[in-house]
Amino acid sequence: MSLPIIFMYSGQGAQHYQMGKEIYENETVFREAMDACDGIVSPLIGTSLCKIIYGDKRKSEPFVRTLHTHPANVAVGYSLTRLLESKGIRPDYLLGYSLGEYTAAVISGAIGLREGLTFTVNQARLLETRTPAAGMIAVVADPSLMQQRPDLFRSCTLAGHNFASHFVATGESNQLRHIERTLVDEGTTALVLPISHGFHSAMVDPIRGECLRLEIDFVAPTIPVISCMTKGRIGAYSSDHLWQVIRNPIRFYETIQALEKSGPYCYLDAGPAGTMNTFTKYILGRGARSQTLLSMNPFGRDLSSIETLVKTLS
Question: Which of the chain's termini has less CB crowding within 10 Å, N or C?
Fold first, then answer.
């Protein structure tokens, strides 16, 4: 019996230049969807979104400007979904991780593509102009490390818990670099993420009022949406949901654990870097009845990945 499919959409930090380039050049459905997103976003940011992503920047170069990365992440998740649907792979559920909840809201039909991308760009501009410079760090350890090392993590906020021994913290950039150096020297894996604002912390509070005035008219989603903020299914969107998504912690670990109580499922990573696939594998562990699948990854060979995915789910 085939398992219900959950499309998972990643958030800030998963993006990179050239993401999906091979698909863009060879798959008409993906390219047309990306071009449609470009047509909405480009007048808002004053330049072509596709030229930013697929221009002369190398994949390894930092892709961090929020005004560009916000809509780029949504556009790629949206376009990849349309491609998979054209190949007969359709989601039974949608799961959003941080900014990925914006993509899920669009795919679910709760908001339109133009409305979702416009909100995303407007919010990104507020973040750039009204919030302090900050960042996020991923640490391969239990989140209790923050309580055990209060001096090291001073002024930092727990932003997300991805699996048992992996968390993300938000803080000032200089402090995060100090944390990274210290932990790596001690043998703990830590990495400052390509993010330039203090998501999931009080650092975004200066734009709360203006974000709430960016009106969005939600309708009932036509595909069930699971939120990593509330750890469960969204029945009806509240008017401030998208604000709460960037302000509150990400509870990915708890969300997957809760889903597994009603599983098994097929968890399909519909993001550009395979991060959701990796997190989910660690949560499920060996012997799980659920399965995880990858659609794209940062190492290329995306067409091969898509072909393998289609064969697996045929």
Answer: N
Q: Tokens at residue 217, please?
A: 């008219």
What digits encode the pLDDT tens for the residues 112-144?
999 999 999 999 999 999 999 899 999 999 999
CATH class name, domain 5-132+200-313: alpha beta
Query: Domain limits of the chain?
Result: 5-132+200-313, 135-192
Q: Is the dihedral of CA 182, 165, 192, 189 positive or negative?
A: positive
Q: How high is the pLDDT of residue 1?
A: 45
114 vs 119: CA distance, rounded Å: 8
Homologous superfamily of the 135-192 domain (CATH): Malonyl-CoA ACP transacylase, ACP-binding (3.30.70.250)
Dihedral over alpha carbons 62, 43, 269, 2 (to 10 degrees)? -170
* Contact yes or no for 33/120 (Cβ under 8 A): no
Low-confidence ranges of the chain (pLDDT < 70): 1
Q: Catalytic residue at 98?
A: yes
Task: Supply the DSSP symbol for 250.
Answer: B
Q: Can you tell me the distance from the alpha carbon of 55 to that of 87, in angstroms, rounded to the nearest whole number?
A: 28
Helix/strand/coil for 314: coil
Q: What is the maximum alpha-carbon separation in the chain?
A: 53
pLDDT per residue as tens digits for the range 222-240 = 999 999 999 999 989 999 9
Question: CATH topology of 5-132+200-313 equal to that of 135-192?
Answer: no
| Dist. CA 164–CA 168, nearest whole Å | 12
Look at residue 251 in the predicted model and tell me its pLDDT: 97
Identify whether the C-beta of residue 218 lies closer than 8 Å to the C-beta of residue 239.
yes
Question: Annotated catalytic residue: which of 79, 98, 201, 227?
Answer: 98
The residues that bridge with 170 in the sheet, in sequence order, are: 136, 157
Q: Residue 123: its pLDDT value, please? A: 96
